[in-house]
């Protein structure tokens, strides 16, 4: 989800698609202001929020403890007042009134365990629930609740709302079954709603009473066999702080496994029903499991894959992956044969902002407009709120496939077709990773697409001190540190693994999860067995964005699942260190022309003054080369080498924007990449950064070199779909809602690569238009020679990567012994990195000239260009040479060359 996790920088956000207008990054602060609550189904539009605001909200952290920075005096008393009517007359300056029940609070302190569990509250005042009032606690939690300070017989001097997630966890956290569960064909429906006054089931328009378990807060009902396939919602009466009153919400099931079109209602479906499985599903033979440390991952959006593919029979759908004769499917098979092991699908759960039936399309002749015209983005923007496109980082229902990718979004067809997609990808030699987004919801409060918060208000979302919902993730943040939100994450992941045979999960903004939550996912997956569950959970890979920012930054609320904290767990985090070194600068540079290792810094400078003087460029380039070396080791913290100043350093000693460049404990802790869906594509970054006169052939060579830095690193590597085909999004840096026009994947080189399809959408790119416009008309669009040549050369690198044990070093110690940078030091060549790993020598020559790299320690040894490149697709690399007498490797300009010992 983030463009860069640099400690000193803010994230790029993928916002849910706006319903009416686009919003720029510059207007993000306005976007994140909490919205007025919307009318909900089954209840009138709520009145304005009736909160009696305070600087610090009381937080009821367990059944016995309330944390509240009340401004009390010696004779002040503190109470929790509650009423089932919703009317609390108590307010500052008024008497508390009669007819309201109270829980008395006594002065107390936080225990060591409580301070450890709630580090952001550790220095605050605490109160104990008076033992005489403990019996009232459960009743109070289902009522209108307020904390007050007063003196007997005197007006109230302070009031505040009460946050209740902690006490709900203490009293009601449960492992009871939730959602639809079938026993011998008969369903039971259960929903966790401990604060609700009443919950009923609305089944096909009629109301069915549900029963409450007082111990767990779970409401449930047993159904008949003929309930299968019927639609349902829960009718929940509950106090809603955002509405300032009791509301009756008609809401779908958070544990839904099927939905009607546009998520209007849940559908009672049994995922074990054979009718929901494609032929051969029970006997599905997957490609051999690839350990995370050697995974080569292709990141792909389901709609991008086929929406613009004229050879696809079901464009834009799950079923497009079952079309074995389409250009897209054939290309994926070619990548699989070369060594790509996983396809990483951008979010495919139920999305809140894509209409599943009525979808708008731009009403313009887009192809006829000039390459630098603003009209394309205007026209796409006019229908963006209602078109078929969004990246999908706006969860609606976590455990149901998105309906807009199904041929029929109503009911269970999406289940069958999602499984058909997985089966088809597996049969093409690719395992499947699913991008999951549990760190936020598309909405909270009484919004129509808010599911969790309309059932247990104030629980599933992470709240700030003033009671507002944290939005550092771009949207309404969730709180996986709360027991039942954490459980929802685990339950949902296990369902995708068992019922859809997903082979891996990529966690969006994983650093906003507790480390314990992600480890709980790992533990639950490890318990899945082929005999009992149909999948081997131990072979399911996990990785995610370990960025450190927001209200949870630096473990403020819990130990986060960040880059540093996940080291040694076998759960990888994206490593941005080498990415920035290869591309240059960062995703948030005002000037996109800031260069890096693979974009010409110092060795092929452009006209940007922000690159600095020649001396400054050289110094920065050499530092980038040290960052790249750390990346090539797998971002290992303790790897020791000589840096470009001649010092002996570890990976952790190398600086990355004030943080250690190396943070990993093992090669499978860090995932390398040169581009992903966030920020400009690699082609577009090169367009901004390489000198304007650089030929299309040389741009293609630099693209392959940049991708090679990730592919030939230790540990897993990821590339964005189409990058090997020089994919462009016409310089769009945040195409989450830019439609098919800017996001299209062109599998046929005769269709070009997407460059020059107009100025990118103004919302996130207008400040870059002065840089973009001259490029869109001044740079030649690559032709088939460049596109097909780049793809073939990249596939050669994949063959080397997956065919050589040298790129499967399993421990940090093995990397230290077998991998080195023999020419690193004060005399290192700017723009060239030479790596020796086991029996191979890899030279990355990013300069525009042929370079000679003399490794005296190898003089007398026999080396030759790797046989894959020697017989491969790139004619230029075949001019690489090796002089055994001097140990000198000669590498053509803009080339990554791999040499094998003994000539092979």
TrEMBL record:
Membrane recorded as keyword: no
Listed CDD domains: AmyAc_Pullulanase_LD-like, E_set_Pullulanase
UniProt feature, compositional bias: Polar residues: 1-11
Position of the signal peptide: 1-38
Signal recorded as keyword: yes
Gene this chain is encoded by: pulA
Family to which the UniProt record says this protein belongs: Belongs to the glycosyl hydrolase 13 family.
Domain Alpha-1,6-glucosidases pullulanase-type C-terminal: 751-900
GO molecular function term, any single one: pullulanase activity
Domain Pullulanase N2 span(s) in chain numbering: 56-170
Domain called Glycoside hydrolase family 13 N-terminal: residue spans: 179-256
Residue ranges of the region described as Disordered: 1-20, 585-617
Coiled-coil segments: none
GO biological process, one term: carbohydrate metabolic process
Protein name: Pullulanase-type alpha-1,6-glucosidase
Phylogenetic placement of the source organism: Bacteria, Bacillati, Actinomycetota, Actinomycetes, Kitasatosporales
Keywords: Signal
């Amino acid at each position: 989800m983030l463009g860069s996790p640099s400690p000193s920088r803010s994230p790029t956000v993928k916002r849910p698609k706006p319903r009416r207008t686009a919003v720029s990054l510059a207007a993000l602060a306005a976007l994140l202001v909490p919205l007025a609550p919307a009318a909900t189904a089954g209840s009138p539009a709520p009145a304005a929020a009736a909160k009696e605001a305070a600087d610090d909200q009381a937080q009821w952290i367990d059944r016995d403890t309330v944390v509240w920075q009340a401004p009390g005096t010696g004779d002040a008393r503190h109470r929790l007042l509650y009423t089932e009517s919703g009317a609390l007359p108590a307010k500052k300056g008024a008497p508390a009134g009669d007819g309201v029940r109270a829980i008395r609070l006594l002065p107390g302190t936080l225990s060591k365990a409580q301070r450890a569990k709630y580090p952001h509250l550790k220095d605050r005042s605490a109160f104990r629930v008076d033992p005489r009032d403990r019996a009232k606690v459960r009743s109070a939690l289902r009522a209108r609740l307020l904390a007050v300070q007063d003196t007997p017989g005197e007006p109230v001097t302070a009031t505040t709302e009460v946050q209740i997630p902690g006490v709900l966890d203490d009293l009601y956290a449960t492992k009871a079954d939730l959602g639809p569960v079938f026993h011998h064909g008969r369903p039971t429906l259960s929903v966790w709603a401990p604060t609700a006054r009443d919950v009923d089931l609305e089944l096909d328009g009629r109301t069915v009473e549900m029963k409450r378990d007082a111990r767990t807060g779970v409401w449930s009902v047993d159904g008949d066999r003929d309930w299968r396939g019927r639609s349902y919602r829960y009718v929940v009466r509950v106090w809603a702080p955002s509405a300032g009153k009791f509301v009756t919400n008609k809401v779908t099931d958070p544990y839904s496994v099927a939905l009607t079109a546009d998520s209007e209602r849940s559908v009672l479906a049994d995922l074990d029903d054979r009718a929901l499985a494609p032929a051969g599903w029970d006997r599905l033979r997957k490609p051999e499991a690839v350990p995370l440390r050697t995974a080569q991952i292709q990141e792909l959006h389901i709609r991008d894959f086929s929406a613009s593919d004229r050879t696809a029979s079901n464009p834009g759908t799950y079923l497009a992956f079952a079309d074995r004769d389409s250009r897209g499917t054939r290309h994926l098979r070619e990548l699989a044969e070369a060594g790509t092991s996983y396809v990483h699908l951008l979010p495919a759960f139920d999305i809140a902002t894509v209409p599943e039936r009525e979808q708008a399309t731009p009403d313009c002749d887009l192809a006829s407009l000039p390459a630098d015209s603003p009209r394309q983005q205007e026209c796409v923007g006019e229908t963006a709120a209602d078109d078929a496109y969004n990246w999908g980082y706006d969860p609606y229902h976590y455990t149901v496939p998105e309906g807009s990718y199904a041929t029929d979004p109503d009911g269970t067809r999406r289940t069958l077709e999602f499984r058909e997609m997985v089966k088809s990808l597996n049969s093409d030699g690719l395992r499947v990773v699913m991008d999951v987004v549990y760190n936020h919801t598309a909405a909270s409060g009484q919004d129509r697409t808010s599911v969790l918060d309309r059932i247990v208000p104030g629980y599933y979302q992470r709240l700030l001190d003033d009671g507002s919902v944290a939005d550092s993730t771009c949207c309404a943040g969730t709180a996986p540190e709360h027991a039942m939100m954490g459980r929802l994450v685990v339950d949902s992941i296990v369902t995708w693994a068992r019922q859809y045979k997903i082979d891996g999960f990529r966690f969006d903004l994983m650093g906003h999860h507790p480390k314990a939550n992600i480890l709980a996912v790992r533990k639950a997956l490890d318990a899945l067995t082929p005999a009992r569950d149909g999948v081997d959970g131990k072979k399911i890979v996990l990785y995610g964005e370990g960025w450190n920012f927001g209200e949870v930054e630096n473990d403020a609320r819990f130990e986060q699942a960040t880059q540093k904290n996940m080291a040694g767990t076998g759960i990888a985090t994206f490593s941005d260190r080498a990415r920035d070194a290869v591309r240059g600068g960062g995703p948030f540079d005002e000037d996109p022309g800031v260069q890096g290792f693979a974009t010409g810094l110092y060795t092929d400078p452009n006209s940007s003054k922000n690159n600095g003087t020649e001396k400054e460029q050289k110094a920065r380039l050499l530092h980038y080369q040290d960052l790249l070396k750390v990346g090539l080791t797998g971002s290992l913290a303790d790897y020791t080498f000589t840096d470009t100043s001649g010092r002996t350093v570890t990976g952790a000693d190398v600086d990355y924007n004030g943080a250690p460049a190396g943070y990993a404990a093992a090669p499978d802790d860090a995932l390398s990449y040169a581009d992903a869906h966030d920020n400009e594509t690699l082609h577009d970054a090169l367009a901004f950064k390489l000198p304007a006169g650089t030929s299309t052939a040389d741009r293609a060579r630099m693209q392959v070199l940049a991708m090679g830095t990730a592919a030939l690193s230790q540990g897993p590597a990821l590339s964005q779909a189409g990058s090997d085909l020089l994919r462009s999004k016409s310089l769009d840096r945040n195409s989450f809602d830019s439609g098919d026009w800017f996001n299209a994947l062109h599998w046929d080189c005769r269709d070009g690569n997407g460059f020059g399809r107009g100025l990118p959408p103004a919302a996130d790119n207008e400040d870059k238009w002065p840089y973009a416009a001259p490029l869109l008309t001044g740079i030649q669009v690559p032709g088939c020679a460049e596109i097909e040549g780049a793809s073939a050369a990249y596939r050669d690198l994949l063959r080397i990567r997956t065919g050589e044990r040298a790129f499967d070093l399993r421990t940090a110690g093995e990397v230290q012994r077998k991998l080195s940078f023999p020419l690193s030091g004060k005399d290192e060549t700017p723009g060239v990195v030479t790596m020796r790993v086991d029996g191979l020598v890899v030279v990355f020559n990013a300069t525009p000239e042929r370079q000679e790299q003399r490794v005296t320690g190898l003089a007398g040894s026999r080396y030759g260009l790797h046989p894959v490149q020697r017989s491969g697709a790139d004619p230029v690399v075949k001019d690489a040479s090796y002089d055994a007498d001097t140990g000198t490797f000669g590498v053509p300009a803009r080339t990554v060359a791999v040499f094998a010992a003994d000539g092979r």
